[in-house]
Amino acid sequence: MTHWTTSDIPPQKGRTAVVTGTGGLGYEDALALVRAGGAIVLAGRDARKGADAVSRIQGVIPGGDIRFEKLDIADRISIAAFAKRLARRQDSVDLLINNAGVMLPPQRRVTADGFELQFGTNYLGHFALTAHLLPLLRKGRDPRVISLSSVAAPSGAIDFDNLNAEHSYKAMSAYSQSKLACLMFAFELQRRSEAGGWGVTSIAAHPGVSRTDLLHKGPGRWSVHGLARSLLPFLFQPAAQGALPTLYAATSPKAKGGGYYGPDRLGETRGYPAAAKIPPQALDRAVAARLWDVSETLIGVRFNTDISGVRTLPGAENMIAAAA
Question: Which of 99, 101, 100, 67 has its CA nearest to residue 86?
Protein backbone atom coordinates (compact mmCIF):
# COMPACT_ATOMS: atom_id res chain seq x y z
CA MET A 1 0.00 0.00 0.00
CA THR A 2 3.09 2.24 0.17
CA HIS A 3 2.44 5.55 -1.63
CA TRP A 4 -0.77 4.32 -3.27
CA THR A 5 -2.11 7.01 -5.64
CA THR A 6 -4.87 7.47 -8.19
CA SER A 7 -2.58 5.88 -10.80
CA ASP A 8 -3.13 2.61 -8.93
CA ILE A 9 -6.92 2.67 -9.35
CA PRO A 10 -8.01 -0.38 -11.36
CA PRO A 11 -10.03 0.30 -14.54
CA GLN A 12 -13.57 1.29 -13.60
CA LYS A 13 -15.17 0.91 -17.02
CA GLY A 14 -18.59 -0.67 -16.67
CA ARG A 15 -18.96 0.40 -13.04
CA THR A 16 -21.41 3.02 -11.78
CA ALA A 17 -20.65 5.08 -8.68
CA VAL A 18 -22.75 7.50 -6.65
CA VAL A 19 -20.71 10.16 -4.86
CA THR A 20 -22.35 12.63 -2.45
CA GLY A 21 -20.92 16.13 -2.25
CA THR A 22 -19.90 18.17 -5.28
CA GLY A 23 -16.87 20.03 -3.91
CA GLY A 24 -13.67 19.21 -2.08
CA LEU A 25 -13.26 15.48 -1.49
CA GLY A 26 -16.39 14.56 -3.45
CA TYR A 27 -15.10 16.39 -6.50
CA GLU A 28 -11.72 14.66 -6.24
CA ASP A 29 -13.38 11.26 -5.81
CA ALA A 30 -15.51 11.83 -8.90
CA LEU A 31 -12.60 13.16 -10.97
CA ALA A 32 -10.42 10.13 -10.19
CA LEU A 33 -13.22 7.64 -10.86
CA VAL A 34 -14.17 9.28 -14.17
CA ARG A 35 -10.52 9.26 -15.20
CA ALA A 36 -10.46 5.52 -14.46
CA GLY A 37 -13.42 5.01 -16.80
CA GLY A 38 -16.31 4.86 -14.33
CA ALA A 39 -19.80 6.27 -14.80
CA ILE A 40 -20.38 8.73 -11.98
CA VAL A 41 -23.53 10.20 -10.48
CA LEU A 42 -22.40 13.27 -8.53
CA ALA A 43 -25.12 14.13 -6.05
CA GLY A 44 -25.56 17.39 -4.18
CA ARG A 45 -27.95 20.06 -3.02
CA ASP A 46 -26.79 22.98 -5.18
CA ALA A 47 -27.54 22.49 -8.89
CA ARG A 48 -25.27 25.36 -9.95
CA LYS A 49 -22.28 23.96 -8.06
CA GLY A 50 -23.08 20.50 -9.35
CA ALA A 51 -23.18 21.65 -12.95
CA ASP A 52 -19.91 23.51 -12.44
CA ALA A 53 -18.23 20.40 -11.00
CA VAL A 54 -19.43 18.27 -13.92
CA SER A 55 -18.24 20.90 -16.41
CA ARG A 56 -14.80 21.10 -14.77
CA ILE A 57 -14.38 17.33 -14.77
CA GLN A 58 -15.47 17.02 -18.40
CA GLY A 59 -13.04 19.81 -19.23
CA VAL A 60 -10.24 17.69 -17.81
CA ILE A 61 -11.59 14.42 -19.21
CA PRO A 62 -13.52 15.14 -22.43
CA GLY A 63 -16.31 12.64 -22.85
CA GLY A 64 -16.09 11.58 -19.22
CA ASP A 65 -19.24 9.78 -18.06
CA ILE A 66 -20.53 11.98 -15.25
CA ARG A 67 -23.82 13.64 -14.48
CA PHE A 68 -25.23 15.66 -11.60
CA GLU A 69 -28.31 14.65 -9.65
CA LYS A 70 -29.98 16.85 -7.07
CA LEU A 71 -29.87 15.42 -3.56
CA ASP A 72 -30.27 17.13 -0.20
CA ILE A 73 -28.72 14.59 2.13
CA ALA A 74 -30.25 16.48 5.07
CA ASP A 75 -33.81 15.81 3.85
CA ARG A 76 -35.22 12.28 3.92
CA ILE A 77 -37.82 13.08 1.26
CA SER A 78 -35.12 14.34 -1.11
CA ILE A 79 -33.10 11.20 -0.40
CA ALA A 80 -36.02 8.89 -1.20
CA ALA A 81 -36.88 10.85 -4.35
CA PHE A 82 -33.26 10.70 -5.53
CA ALA A 83 -33.18 6.92 -5.06
CA LYS A 84 -36.48 6.56 -6.91
CA ARG A 85 -35.20 8.59 -9.88
CA LEU A 86 -31.99 6.60 -9.94
CA ALA A 87 -33.87 3.30 -9.98
CA ARG A 88 -35.85 4.49 -13.00
CA ARG A 89 -32.66 5.22 -14.93
CA GLN A 90 -30.51 2.21 -14.08
CA ASP A 91 -30.70 -1.34 -12.81
CA SER A 92 -27.76 -1.34 -10.43
CA VAL A 93 -25.13 0.67 -8.54
CA ASP A 94 -21.62 -0.69 -7.98
CA LEU A 95 -20.23 1.91 -5.60
CA LEU A 96 -21.67 4.38 -3.10
CA ILE A 97 -19.38 6.95 -1.48
CA ASN A 98 -21.10 8.59 1.49
CA ASN A 99 -18.97 11.72 1.51
CA ALA A 100 -21.03 14.92 1.88
CA GLY A 101 -20.93 16.60 5.26
CA VAL A 102 -21.06 19.67 7.44
CA MET A 103 -18.69 20.66 10.23
CA LEU A 104 -18.89 22.78 13.37
CA PRO A 105 -21.80 25.18 12.88
CA PRO A 106 -21.37 27.51 15.89
CA GLN A 107 -25.05 27.39 16.88
CA ARG A 108 -27.29 24.35 16.91
CA ARG A 109 -29.08 24.01 13.59
CA VAL A 110 -31.45 21.33 12.38
CA THR A 111 -32.16 19.51 9.14
CA ALA A 112 -35.45 19.58 7.25
CA ASP A 113 -36.51 16.65 9.43
CA GLY A 114 -35.57 18.31 12.71
CA PHE A 115 -32.31 16.47 13.40
CA GLU A 116 -29.19 18.26 14.66
CA LEU A 117 -27.47 19.33 11.45
CA GLN A 118 -24.21 17.39 11.79
CA PHE A 119 -25.78 14.15 13.05
CA GLY A 120 -28.59 14.42 10.52
CA THR A 121 -26.38 15.25 7.53
CA ASN A 122 -23.14 13.38 8.13
CA TYR A 123 -24.72 10.22 9.49
CA LEU A 124 -28.51 9.85 9.35
CA GLY A 125 -28.84 11.10 5.78
CA HIS A 126 -26.25 8.65 4.52
CA PHE A 127 -27.78 5.86 6.60
CA ALA A 128 -31.08 6.54 4.80
CA LEU A 129 -29.42 6.86 1.38
CA THR A 130 -27.67 3.51 1.82
CA ALA A 131 -30.95 1.88 2.81
CA HIS A 132 -32.73 3.26 -0.25
CA LEU A 133 -29.92 2.24 -2.61
CA LEU A 134 -29.37 -1.21 -1.12
CA PRO A 135 -31.57 -2.94 -3.75
CA LEU A 136 -29.52 -1.36 -6.56
CA LEU A 137 -26.26 -2.12 -4.77
CA ARG A 138 -27.22 -5.75 -4.33
CA LYS A 139 -27.54 -5.99 -8.11
CA GLY A 140 -24.13 -4.37 -8.64
CA ARG A 141 -20.82 -5.96 -9.51
CA ASP A 142 -18.59 -6.28 -6.44
CA PRO A 143 -20.66 -3.53 -4.77
CA ARG A 144 -19.05 -1.37 -2.09
CA VAL A 145 -20.29 1.29 0.30
CA ILE A 146 -17.66 3.72 1.60
CA SER A 147 -18.55 5.78 4.67
CA LEU A 148 -16.50 8.84 5.60
CA SER A 149 -15.35 9.18 9.17
CA SER A 150 -12.83 11.65 10.62
CA VAL A 151 -9.80 12.10 12.85
CA ALA A 152 -12.38 13.55 15.25
CA ALA A 153 -14.10 10.17 15.68
CA PRO A 154 -11.84 8.96 18.54
CA SER A 155 -13.10 11.80 20.73
CA GLY A 156 -16.74 10.97 19.95
CA ALA A 157 -19.35 9.14 21.98
CA ILE A 158 -22.84 7.96 21.05
CA ASP A 159 -25.08 9.76 23.53
CA PHE A 160 -28.50 8.16 23.14
CA ASP A 161 -29.95 10.66 25.61
CA ASN A 162 -28.78 13.60 23.50
CA LEU A 163 -28.30 12.31 19.95
CA ASN A 164 -29.73 15.47 18.46
CA ALA A 165 -28.21 17.86 20.98
CA GLU A 166 -31.64 18.88 22.24
CA HIS A 167 -30.39 19.22 25.82
CA SER A 168 -26.98 20.75 25.17
CA TYR A 169 -24.99 21.64 22.07
CA LYS A 170 -21.25 21.68 21.65
CA ALA A 171 -20.22 21.86 18.02
CA MET A 172 -17.16 19.61 18.24
CA SER A 173 -18.90 17.03 20.42
CA ALA A 174 -21.77 16.83 17.94
CA TYR A 175 -19.38 16.56 15.00
CA SER A 176 -17.30 13.86 16.68
CA GLN A 177 -20.44 11.89 17.52
CA SER A 178 -21.64 12.09 13.90
CA LYS A 179 -18.33 10.81 12.55
CA LEU A 180 -18.10 8.04 15.13
CA ALA A 181 -21.63 7.05 14.08
CA CYS A 182 -20.49 6.89 10.43
CA LEU A 183 -17.63 4.60 11.42
CA MET A 184 -19.84 2.33 13.50
CA PHE A 185 -22.39 2.21 10.68
CA ALA A 186 -19.71 1.04 8.25
CA PHE A 187 -18.75 -1.83 10.56
CA GLU A 188 -22.35 -2.77 11.35
CA LEU A 189 -23.31 -2.71 7.67
CA GLN A 190 -20.48 -5.13 6.90
CA ARG A 191 -21.59 -7.46 9.72
CA ARG A 192 -25.21 -7.43 8.57
CA SER A 193 -24.25 -7.89 4.93
CA GLU A 194 -22.17 -10.94 5.84
CA ALA A 195 -24.87 -12.39 8.11
CA GLY A 196 -27.67 -11.75 5.62
CA GLY A 197 -25.83 -12.64 2.43
CA TRP A 198 -26.38 -9.17 0.94
CA GLY A 199 -23.13 -9.33 -1.01
CA VAL A 200 -22.29 -5.67 -0.26
CA THR A 201 -18.85 -4.75 1.06
CA SER A 202 -18.78 -1.91 3.58
CA ILE A 203 -15.57 0.00 4.29
CA ALA A 204 -14.78 3.21 6.20
CA ALA A 205 -12.21 5.87 5.41
CA HIS A 206 -11.12 9.28 6.62
CA PRO A 207 -9.23 12.08 4.84
CA GLY A 208 -6.95 13.26 7.63
CA VAL A 209 -6.78 17.05 7.76
CA SER A 210 -7.54 18.25 4.25
CA ARG A 211 -7.90 21.57 2.46
CA THR A 212 -11.66 21.74 1.82
CA ASP A 213 -14.33 24.36 2.44
CA LEU A 214 -15.91 22.61 5.43
CA LEU A 215 -14.42 25.00 7.97
CA HIS A 216 -15.31 28.09 5.92
CA LYS A 217 -18.90 26.90 5.56
CA GLY A 218 -19.30 25.57 9.11
CA PRO A 219 -17.84 27.79 11.82
CA GLY A 220 -17.18 30.51 9.20
CA ARG A 221 -14.18 32.25 7.67
CA TRP A 222 -13.67 34.52 10.68
CA SER A 223 -13.84 31.80 13.31
CA VAL A 224 -10.65 30.42 14.85
CA HIS A 225 -11.02 27.29 12.71
CA GLY A 226 -11.83 29.28 9.58
CA LEU A 227 -8.87 31.61 10.04
CA ALA A 228 -6.55 28.64 10.52
CA ARG A 229 -7.88 27.20 7.26
CA SER A 230 -7.32 30.53 5.44
CA LEU A 231 -4.04 31.69 6.96
CA LEU A 232 -2.26 28.41 7.68
CA PRO A 233 -2.85 26.34 4.55
CA PHE A 234 0.29 24.29 5.14
CA LEU A 235 -1.52 22.60 8.05
CA PHE A 236 -3.97 21.07 5.58
CA GLN A 237 -3.04 18.58 2.87
CA PRO A 238 -4.57 19.09 -0.60
CA ALA A 239 -8.06 17.71 -1.09
CA ALA A 240 -6.76 15.38 -3.81
CA GLN A 241 -4.39 13.84 -1.26
CA GLY A 242 -7.13 13.63 1.34
CA ALA A 243 -9.33 11.73 -1.11
CA LEU A 244 -6.83 8.91 -1.50
CA PRO A 245 -7.97 6.76 1.47
CA THR A 246 -11.55 6.91 0.19
CA LEU A 247 -10.47 5.99 -3.32
CA TYR A 248 -8.32 3.16 -2.00
CA ALA A 249 -11.28 1.80 -0.01
CA ALA A 250 -13.53 2.22 -3.05
CA THR A 251 -11.35 0.56 -5.67
CA SER A 252 -8.38 -1.39 -4.38
CA PRO A 253 -8.64 -5.19 -4.52
CA LYS A 254 -6.65 -5.18 -1.26
CA ALA A 255 -9.18 -3.08 0.68
CA LYS A 256 -10.97 -5.32 3.16
CA GLY A 257 -14.63 -5.39 4.05
CA GLY A 258 -15.06 -3.95 7.52
CA GLY A 259 -11.73 -2.14 7.14
CA TYR A 260 -10.86 1.45 7.98
CA TYR A 261 -8.33 3.52 6.01
CA GLY A 262 -6.73 6.92 6.47
CA PRO A 263 -3.47 8.79 5.83
CA ASP A 264 -0.29 7.16 7.12
CA ARG A 265 1.67 10.07 8.62
CA LEU A 266 1.62 12.59 11.49
CA GLY A 267 -1.12 10.98 13.51
CA GLU A 268 -3.14 10.11 10.39
CA THR A 269 -3.47 13.78 9.44
CA ARG A 270 -1.71 13.48 6.07
CA GLY A 271 0.04 11.07 3.76
CA TYR A 272 -0.90 8.02 1.73
CA PRO A 273 -3.59 5.39 2.42
CA ALA A 274 -2.97 2.92 5.22
CA ALA A 275 -4.99 0.99 7.76
CA ALA A 276 -6.35 3.52 10.26
CA LYS A 277 -6.47 3.06 14.01
CA ILE A 278 -9.97 2.14 15.15
CA PRO A 279 -11.25 3.92 18.28
CA PRO A 280 -12.22 1.32 20.92
CA GLN A 281 -15.76 2.72 21.23
CA ALA A 282 -16.34 2.05 17.51
CA LEU A 283 -16.01 -1.69 18.19
CA ASP A 284 -18.91 -1.84 20.66
CA ARG A 285 -21.33 -4.11 18.81
CA ALA A 286 -24.19 -3.60 21.26
CA VAL A 287 -24.05 0.18 20.80
CA ALA A 288 -23.76 -0.23 17.03
CA ALA A 289 -26.81 -2.49 16.89
CA ARG A 290 -28.81 -0.10 19.06
CA LEU A 291 -27.72 2.87 16.95
CA TRP A 292 -28.87 1.02 13.80
CA ASP A 293 -32.31 0.33 15.29
CA VAL A 294 -32.70 3.89 16.57
CA SER A 295 -31.61 5.28 13.20
CA GLU A 296 -34.19 3.24 11.32
CA THR A 297 -36.88 4.60 13.62
CA LEU A 298 -35.67 8.20 13.39
CA ILE A 299 -35.32 8.28 9.62
CA GLY A 300 -38.42 6.20 8.91
CA VAL A 301 -36.69 3.64 6.69
CA ARG A 302 -36.02 -0.05 7.21
CA PHE A 303 -33.22 -1.90 5.45
CA ASN A 304 -34.90 -4.59 3.37
CA THR A 305 -33.39 -8.06 3.12
CA ASP A 306 -34.33 -8.60 -0.52
CA ILE A 307 -33.80 -6.57 -3.68
CA SER A 308 -37.34 -5.26 -4.07
CA GLY A 309 -36.81 -2.00 -2.19
CA VAL A 310 -36.91 -0.43 1.26
CA ARG A 311 -39.82 -0.15 3.62
CA THR A 312 -40.92 3.32 4.65
CA LEU A 313 -43.15 4.53 7.44
CA PRO A 314 -46.86 4.85 6.65
CA GLY A 315 -47.66 8.10 4.90
CA ALA A 316 -44.15 8.69 3.60
CA GLU A 317 -44.91 7.23 0.17
CA ASN A 318 -47.13 10.17 -0.85
CA MET A 319 -44.48 12.73 0.08
CA ILE A 320 -41.82 10.76 -1.78
CA ALA A 321 -43.98 10.47 -4.89
CA ALA A 322 -44.63 14.20 -4.87
CA ALA A 323 -40.92 14.99 -4.64
CA ALA A 324 -39.77 12.49 -7.25
Answer: 67
CA–CA separation, 318 vs 298, rounded Å? 18
Class of domain 13-323: alpha beta
**Is residue 175 among the annotated active site residues?**
yes
Q: Active site residue: 175, 248, 260, 261, which one? A: 175
Domains of the chain, residue spans: 13-323
Query: Residue 12: which region, alpha, beta or left (left: phi > 0; alpha: psi -120 to 50)?
Result: alpha
Contact present, 105 and 223 (Cβ < 8 Å): no
pLDDT tens by residue, 146-176: 999 999 999 999 999 999 999 999 999 999 9
- Cβ atoms of 95 and 250 within 8 Å: the answer is yes
Q: Whole-angstrom Cα distance, residue 290 to residue 292?
A: 5
What is the value of pTM for the model shown?
0.89
Identify which of 189, 213, 215 has the alpha carbon closest to the alpha carbon of residue 202: 189
pLDDT tens, residue by residue, 103-113: 999 999 999 99
Task: Tell me 255's DSSP state.
Answer: P
